[in-house]
Amino acid sequence: MLYNPPSPLETKVLSRRFGLPDSAAIGTYLATDGYQAFLKASKMTPAQIIDEIKASNLRGRGGAGFPTGMKWSFVPRTSPKPKYIVVNGDEGEPGTCKDRVLMENDPHSLIEGCLIAGLAVDAHAGYVYIRGEYRYLIEILEKALAEAYAKGWLGKNIQGTGFDFDLYAHTGAGSYECGEESALLESLEGKRGVPRIRPPFPAVSGAFQCPSVLNNVETFCAVPHILLGGGKAFADLGVPKAGGTKLTALSGHINRPGVYELRLGFPVRQLIEEVGGGIPNGKKLKAFIPGGSSCPILTAAECEGATMDYDSMASRKSMLGSGGVIIMDEDTSMVKVGLRLMRFYSHESCGWCIPCREGTTWLTKIMTRFYDGNGSRADIDLLGDIAKNMLGRTFCPLGDAAALPMISLVEKFRDEFEDYLKGKRREETSGRLVTV
Amino acid sequence: MTFSPQLEARFATLLASYPPGRERSAMIPMLLYAQDELGSVTDELIAEVARRTGVTPLQVDEVISYYTMLRRKPAGKYHVQVCTNVSCLLRDGDRLFEHACQKLGIENHGVTADGQFSIEEVECMGACSWAPAVQVNYEFHHDVTPDKLDRLLDELKEKR
Ligand SMILES: Cc1cc2nc3c(=O)[nH]c(=O)nc-3n(C[C@H](O)[C@H](O)[C@H](O)COP(=O)(O)O)c2cc1C
Ligand code: FES
Asked: What pLDDT score does B159 carry?
């Protein structure tokens, strides 16, 4: 099911089956080129498959944007250990709800992406880690897996190719940190989701300490399209160093929120005005989060001329992230947003390393007293200081994920924090924001 | 400890899903699926899952305390989860949460006296574009207004 109407400005590649009757069924999949990319890949050498992915300029869609072909090439194919494919379907980044739409409407493309990755790195088993709240998606995926086994697209000697592959759905149980790749791997082993020190990276020591390919759902879903249409064609959809489309989830103060598939390099203005239908009640844009709450927040001025791709966002000292675009209008209280975000990060910090555990706790304490009207000017500096001292000093990037938005808030919206102290706090905000 | 045949079948599949000697991997899914049936993670369940996955009960307990969905005390028959994270907040998710508390007469993590409803303020649940979002048990509700929530809760009340 789709929860928002499509936009005519979309480029339908990964979402091309969305809206077809029974789009998640294997019959629909097979009738629309399904599993043909796997058959094609089965006649290629592993190096050829990886070269095709490299040529597509596909970059990881989970947030960090690492080149996928390169990641796959790091897996030591000749290692005597078994290799694994791991799908990150934890989707916990606030603002992000696109993997959900992919798994719900086209689960077989995810399965096919895993099969192709398996061919590329000589893996014969894979795990799809799905957040516990997405129980209905686990059911959809399990149904798709059963169909694929029944029709010989999973299991032993798939379609006579001699290639064996098993894929399993694995449920999480409520943890944002388990979306972080190494914490996910710990969780997959039945442990607390605490990150691992790297190196070694998952390519060398991943699931069960064996070489693994770990990618986001959307990254795997792009793979069949790349194999079928060719890496070059996929690359051409995007911008020079990043190929293809990005599923973009629009949320916040926008007339037509929803998940839309857009070419990388899509202009931010057009995204807001045309795809999203503008900001409700003719209000002005105040702030823009390009890819989930962990990205530095951009001001309206910084959005001028910006496009939705890695380089454009990096040049504005933010990130494309996960594709979760959050729009805030001129009436938004940035103090309130700051408090809510810090509460999220302190709640989700796994507590393993001190800079993150203490940093997020203190950011929340200070934001709370500030929000309650007991703050001081020194607190504004302190928030920035603490956040800056967390940067790069934590075991995994959750610390940065909390620090980056905090720094951008106090630096770019300092006036508003100062006004808040003078009692000019927006009446609308006081007294709420309850617990967690 | 005896479970329903469906849950036993689920356990068997799970225990066979991981490489040999890696039964521990099945622990978290086993706990969550069992909780769905039992209402909470009981001491007895911990001992049973520990036995079947080849770890100590303490090792299971230590894992449970990490995951927010695993709970040692039963929730209501209908566990109402309201997201107040940023995308939902911008669409009055916090107001919706307060409204739900008032309507049910309980506070965060509370359970109604009759055990029918419980409430929890939750983090982003992956419904940001259809905010504010609510989950009742595993069921998603999108673009929820206070009125819509009232109707939903009233319907569930009548269902009992
Ligand atoms: C705190 C934290 C949470 C994360 N959550 C997710 C997530 O829910 N889904 C995801 O795909 N990646 C998430 N990531 C990124 C992963 O660590 C990893 O980079 C990604 O899954 C790799 O896949 P990709 O290369 O296809 O993007 C998270 C990272 C951090 C630090
Ligand atoms: S912020 Fe509420 S569902 Fe994502």
From this structure: 83
CB-ligand 1 contact for A276 (6 Å cutoff): no
Q: Which helix (H) or strand (E) holds A47?
A: helix A46-55
User: How many A from CA of A51 to the centre of ligand 1?
Assistant: 24
Dist CA A52 CA A57 (whole Å): 9
Question: What is the three-class DSSP state of B121?
Answer: strand
Q: Which CATH superfamily is domain B5-66 in?
A: NADH-quinone oxidoreductase subunit E (1.10.10.1590)
How far apart CA A254 and CA A257 sit, in angstroms, is: 6
Which chain A positions have a beta carbon within 8 Å of B89's beta carbon?
336-337, 340, 433
Element (H, E) at A190: none
**pLDDT, position A425:** 61
Asked whether the beta carbons of residue A258 and residue B129 sit closer than 8 angstroms, the reply is yes
Residue stretches of chain A with pLDDT short of 50 = 429-436
CA distances A344 to A83, A321, B90, Å, are 35, 18, 15
Phi and psi based region of residue A317 (left: phi greater than 0; alpha: psi -120 to 50; beta: remaining): left
User: Pick from A373, A67, A113: which is nearest to A217 by CA?
Assistant: A113
Please report which helix (H) or strand (E) contains residue B79, including its range: strand B78-83
Q: What is the pLDDT of residue A426?
A: 52
Three-state SS at A205: coil
This prediction's pTM: 0.97
Omega within 30 of 0 (cis) for the link into A199: yes
Distance of CA A218 to the CA centre of its chain: 8
What Å distances lie between residue A50 and A33, A69, A157, CA to CA?
21, 5, 22
The whole-number pLDDT of residue A435 equals 42
Q: Which residues contact A129 (CB under 8 A, 6 or more apart)?
A: A86, A87, A88, A89, A90, A170, A172, A178, A184, A187, A188
Domains of chain B by residue range: 5-66, 78-159
Contact B140 A293 (CB under 8 A): no
- Return the H-helix or E-strand segment holding A307: strand A307-308
Fold of B78-159: Glutaredoxin (3.40.30)
Q: Would the CATH topology of B5-66 be identical to that of B78-159? A: no
3-state class (DSSP) for residue A285: strand
Can you give the pLDDT at residue B117? 98
| Among A193, A350, A432, beta carbon nearest to B95 | A432
Res A400: pLDDT: 97
> Which of B80, B124, B142 to mutate: most A Cβ within 10 Å?
B124
Place of tokens 């080149």: A67
